[in-house]
Amino acid sequence: MTEVYLFDWGDTLMVDFPGVPGKMCNWERVAAVEGAEEALSCISKKAQVYITSVYSYRCSRIN
């Protein structure tokens, strides 16, 4: 059986800055949560990884 991991975008992979309105893609500054890139890189070598958000209606797969 293939392992599958789901990660939430805001405050799990990307910092959700308090008080900044609107969609993250429109923010002047964005930042990854410390260790997120390394964790995704490691996990995606042996499992399927998907990223989701309460603001999205579909998941995006990391290849």
Protein described:
The protein has 63 residues and is α+β, with helices and mostly antiparallel strands. The protein has one domain. The chain is 13% helix and 21% strand. It starts with a strand and ends with a strand.
Quick overview:
The chain is α+β, with helices and mostly antiparallel strands and 63 residues long. The chain is built from one helix and three strands; from the N terminus they run βαββ.
Q: Any descriptors?
A:
1 helix, alpha+beta, 3 strands, 63 residues, 13% helix
Strands, count: 3
The percent range for strand residues is: 15-25%
**Helix/sheet category:** alpha+beta
Which of globular, elongated, flat, extended, rod-shaped describes the shape?
elongated
- Helix coverage percent: 10-25%
The Cα radius of gyration reads 13 Å
Tell me the number of structural domains: 1
Low-confidence stretches: none
Strand order of the largest sheet: 1-2-3
Mean pLDDT: 86
Number of helices: 1
SSE run: EHEE
Describe the main β-sheet briefly. Answer: 3 strands, mixed
Report the end-to-end length measured between terminal Cα atoms.
18 Å
